[in-house]
Design goal:
elongated; alpha/beta; 20 strands
Length: 401
């Protein structure tokens, strides 16, 4: 019985939704006030409340005539350009075409742009006639700004009833962080073909180390025949294991580690500046934050993802937990660069080192808006303080992990 009743209620809700959805919040309030007024008038014989109730109901009835009518539009939204740097100018264009066979009536179109809402009046259009609207997009801060969907709105002037028709899908505008241009091989990364030489000895690699006596199972291609002929026994080559440089670049987005929103934005700019140059250098790279693992295929995809970085709070118990969880599936890095705000203790930077092996070098990038940019070493760890993004190229030339 209960299941049948629930099913019947859902069916009734679906049937009534085209009508119920048209009534706005203001409309429901007016309808409620009308019902209450009529009940008071009927219960106590107050003519004033009867007049008020019927007046409110009449307003709703009159509003019904404003929601009737059919429109047939083709609407296109273009953002030029689709990617900008914070502070650059971006423009939008909305083109409305009457796709019907008869002239359309004037209508109102609403277009959400970020947190704002733009309203446009579309005049009467002949069949296949077009109407163009241009609008500016605010790009003063790094963000992903969503424009759309564009919706036509029919309703009364009091906003009691409102019928909307969606014409487009949302379009994204990427507002990239401001970045500094770094020199190639910034951050001291290896760029040679052999990679970084380790102390591990192996039988197959590039960097020659020494010769040793042949052991069963050794590949004959590693036999050094000239030395074997001179010593009278087979000698094989040994090599030092080499490793291509792998950089892990991470930023904690915990709000408590940053003194202000501007300092957080400086941290994102530092992260993006280093990552873009590393990608251009062709070094393998992984970039992670608490809420997002950034794509590193090209500088553009990385900058797109960096536009989505937002401050977080309480995602992990500690910075070390975040780093361990975010990097456990990544290749072992040769260099780790950690970016955080001025409120992050040095001890937290040191705790990140314990996540990686002794072969991994750690560089701590501490952003402190307005401070003098400098580099120091604490217990073997490189601590770089960045107070202004313009200082980053000069400081990175001095960094030698």
């Amino acid at each position: 019985m209960t299941t049948r009743a629930a099913g019947a209620a859902q069916t009734a809700a679906r049937f009534a939704s085209p009508v119920v959805d048209v009534v706005s919040t203001t409309g429901w309030l007016v309808l409620s006030a009308a019902i209450v007024s009529l009940l008071l008038a009927w219960s106590f014989g107050w003519i004033e409340f009867a007049f008020l109730g019927f007046t409110l109901l009449a307003a709703l009835v009159i509003a019904v005539s404003f929601v009737f009518g059919r429109m047939s539009y083709r609407v296109g939204i273009e953002l030029q350009p689709a990617r900008v740097v914070a502070g650059e100018r971006a423009l939008g264009r909305m083109l409305v075409t009457n796709a019907g066979t008869r002239a359309s009536t004037p209508s109102r179109l609403e277009l959400p742009v970020g947190a704002g809402l733009a309203e446009f009046m579309v005049p009467a259009l002949a069949p296949e006639a077009e109407h163009e609207e241009l609008f500016a997009v605010p790009t003063n801060r790094r963000a992903v700004i969503v424009a759309g969907p564009a919706e036509s709105v029919r309703g009364d002037q009091l906003g009691l009833l409102r019928r909307t028709v969606r014409w487009t899908d949302p379009v994204e505008l990427f507002v990239h962080p401001i970045t500094a241009r770094l020199q190639p091989s910034a951050a001291g990364l290896m760029r040679d073909l052999e990679g970084e030489i380790t102390k591990t000895i192996t039988n197959n690699d590039i960097s020659f180390h020494a010769l040793r006596a042949y052991a069963p199972g050794d590949a004959l291609r590693n036999v050094h025949w000239r030395t074997s002929a001179r010593t009278g026994q087979l000698m094989v080559r040994q090599y030092e294991e080499t490793r291509r440089s792998q950089l892990t670049l991470l930023q904690t987005t915990e709000r408590k580690f940053y003194a202000s929103d501007e300092e957080f934005e400086l941290g994102v700019s530092v992260l993006a500046s280093i990552a873009v140059q590393v990608i251009r250098d062709g070094t393998r790279l992984a970039v992670v934050t608490e809420g997002l693992a950034l794509r590193t295929a090209t500088p553009t995809t990385l900058l797109d993802d960096s536009s989505r970085i937002e401050p977080t709070g309480g995602e992990f118990a500690s910075v070390r937990d975040f780093v361990r969880e975010a990097t456990k599936r990544l290749p072992p890095p040769s260099v780790v660069i950690a970016v955080a705000g001025s409120a992050m203790p040095v001890a937290e930077f040191r705790s990140i080192e314990t996540v990686f092996s002794a072969d991994t070098t750690m560089v701590a990038m501490r952003v402190e808006l307005g401070a003098a940019s400098r580099m120091s070493k604490i217990a073997g760890a490189v601590i770089v303080t960045i107070g202004d993004l313009a200082d980053l190229p000069r400081i990175m030339r001095r960094v030698r992990p």
